[in-house]
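Tokenise the fold.
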Amino acid sequence: MKPWIVAIILTIAVAYFIYRVTYLIKLLKLGKPENRYDRVGERLWITIKQSILQFSQFRVPKGDYTYAGMDASDQCPANSTGKVLSPREIILSLKENLFANAEKLLSTPKDQWREMERVEL
């Protein structure tokens, strides 16, 4: 590519970046100021609880949404067209298949995976 084309593209990218930053700063200035020092102890405990101790992980027994009984089928675009598709079932069957084939996958060189017999679930 010619250097002047790269310079034009770079100039446009930098200009767009500056435009977006100034737009976001204007949006931040629209919000009302918040007193973040009014409940220091409570805010500190929430931060520790959510980020360091990660108590939110203990709400779901197995640690992921598939075991919590949550299903994204309602939001799946295929379901809105009348096709039956369950993202949760796809994830669970993929996970089961990986666990069923784990020993073979780990003991077989990667270049031989295509010829390997698969366990059907």
